[in-house]
Here is the input.
Amino acid sequence: MKLLLLLLLLVALLSIGAEAAVKNRKEKNKPSSSGSECSDWRYGNCVPSNGDCGAGFREGSCDQQTKKMKCKVPCNWKKEFGADCKYRFGSWGECDPSSGSRTRTGTLKRALYNAECQQTISVSKPCPGKTKTKNKGKKKKGKGN
Here is the structure.
């Protein structure tokens, strides 16, 4: 009888502890009552700590609050339209012989952190051509024969 009573008491204590843990977890995920409930955060561009790319910070502001958050600028980003503007590009156009380049346009797919982005952009690159030829399969003649 004592063993059954101890077992029942142990189960009751474990269930109370589990309920308290769940309650603490829920309260931890709620926004703090000391901070304001601002929902219109505006973020600036990501500014790399060193050089043009890599880890850095962006500042956000809402009403009278400001905060800094970590960010990363990819090292292959296109500076003219920024790392926070994501575009969907079409196929490359035909080569223009007068300029020696070909272009393609992109339409805005997503603006990260409420960044100000152009709706459409155009990028260009040099036309493929006979710029470099590699000597494949040629052997150098050795000295002394």
Observations:
- The helical segments are 2-29.
- The radius of gyration is 30 Å.
- Residues 13 and 113 are 47 Å apart (CA to CA).
